[in-house]
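Support case: pyridoxal-5'-phosphate complex. Customer-provided input:
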Amino acid sequence: MKKVYLDNSATTPVSKEVLEAMIPYFTETFGNPSSIHSHGRETRSVIEKSRKKIADLLGTSPAEIFFTSGGTEADNMAIISSISSLGVKHMVSSTLEHHAVLHTVEHQAKTGKINLDLIRHSDLGELDIEHLRQSTQKGSLVSIMHANNEIGNLNDINTISEICREKGAFFHTDTVQTMGKVKHNLQELDIDFLIGSAHKFHGPKGIGFIYVNANNKIDPFIHGGAQERNMRGGTENVAGIIGLAKALELAYENQDTDKKYIESIKRSMIEQLKEKIEGVSFNGLSEDLEKSIHTVLNVSIPESSDNDMLLFSLDIKGVSVSGGSACSSGTSIGSHVLEAINSDPRRGAIRFSFSKYTTMEEVTYAVDSLKELLS
Ligand code: PLP
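Agent response - structure generated as follows:
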């Protein structure tokens, strides 16, 4: 059976080059980086080289990069450490955030550690920047993602950073969906926290990082050994760190070519969907190639009693995608993002997401399969 993978926002395959770079660190160079003997010193040295590589790509210093188990931990670290170490008592965020941020800020608010303002947005998922400006106070932590993982909307993090600096607030951005796909330059973007997760850009799962601006002195996030300069106890995921740095390096090296190619894939899918599927539309700003990330297309399908089965039926045809419509009233399953932008729960929703490995043929197969299911 044909197998077509169009769920690259959920995760991506590890590239061959990344895997090859990682392999020696399982069996040959395996010492515990905290050990003082030569085996340990060897792995310590490659960890620090990887940290430097990532810092150089982002235009910052290695002292500001900390490895984590991925995006979720990095989001938690930014938020929880700001509260415990920087005196943050008020936060500004949005219901459109990934649960790694949204559930974390909601928990902090529920347990009385912060007051939380969730900023307004339009039905296309555009954030109300004036509301953000009014809500942000001196000492607030603003946590707003760069690209939305479901609808692909890109938020203007440069403007949000300027507002935060004007107001004397801290700014954290969840850049999991844009890391490796757009150039983040910390020489130009004045920010407090920014994150990445390797499995979203052809690196391994279970490894990520957080950039912490050196002006912010924060306490250890995970207590234990002195790893990560006392900020995160626990023996380092050495092979993962090597894979993360290699994946980011490759992503930066080929970024312009990959972006152009993926944009052409997305453009073709939009055209084919409009041509072949009557009544199709797009959720959020995902149809707009300027205002959404090139890797995500969130498609809205006309109302039908078969919509509940759509993802399952595509799966049977070998097409892996994700989605699910807005939560209908009284149910808790479904997408909190589509619900927040008032997407009609009766319409079907499918998130197609692409990578450099997606082919035109796969996109055509997916659209034709969808057309067949809907007819
Ligand atoms: N933030 C965003 C925007 C994401 O899309 C994801 C993963 O889907 C995460 C955070 C969580 O990352 P991880 O899977 O590395 O914990």
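The first strand starts at residue 4 and ends at 5.

Case will auto-close in a few days if no follow-up is received.
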